[in-house]
Amino acid sequence: MLDYCEAAIRKGFEEIAFTDHLTVFPDGSSTAHSLDWLKLENYVKEAEMAREKYGGRLAVRLGLEVDYIPGNERFLENVLDSYDFDFIMGSVHFVGGICIDSPKHRILVEREIGSNGFNVFYSKYMRLVSKAVETGLFHVIGHIDIVRIWGFNPGDGSMDEQKVLNLVKQHEMCIEASSRGLRQPVNSIYPSHRIMRKARELEIPLTLGTDAHSVEEIDYAYDSLISYVKAFGYERIATLSKRRILERKI
Ligand SMILES: [Zn+2]
User: Fold this and answer.
1) Which of 92, 115, 134, 237 is the most buried (most CB within 10 A)?
2) Residue 89 Cα, ligand 1 centroid: separation in angstroms?
């Protein structure tokens, strides 16, 4: 975290948010890339160290990117309430046991799409995102249409998107605009133009993310990200502190 903070200051940022992965299945097992939920205390302590060291120069927000998997709600509720996170970003990476953004599972995604078409898969994914929103556990939805990762685009997914965004609005949540997609086969920022237009219409606040998995990536395509959200009329972005949305002029 200290390395990321150093880099953020060097690159002229005033604020940084950490959202390490927490993936816990309903049976309590985890994936290899997930933080160990028994050691979340260390994660929290590290953020405190970063705040002590860089306070005044850099606002350090502590969040988590948490997988929504049907059946893991109760567990998450207990774990997430035990720590003072600034916010929790909810993401869907698993659709019926398939990890949609894992290169190893790409073939499974393609097989599903081959038999039923992308729109059926898209609807399935979006229904899970809706359920994630309805849990009330999350403040932000991460990369809301990452299901497009392998380059597929929904033709008529508009109804599913509208439903999810209405729920996001009702729950007073944010969605994340992420440059991650620019380094994936889809080669576009998440969310799509159509979702961005609807989000803007509903005045849903946007957080900005680069989904950095290394220090070098913290400002990945940041200028493109800013121009992208501005093109849809966004003049402010959201950051979160103590589970409250703060609005910042871009
Ligand atoms: Zn993710």
Assistant:
1) 92
2) 9
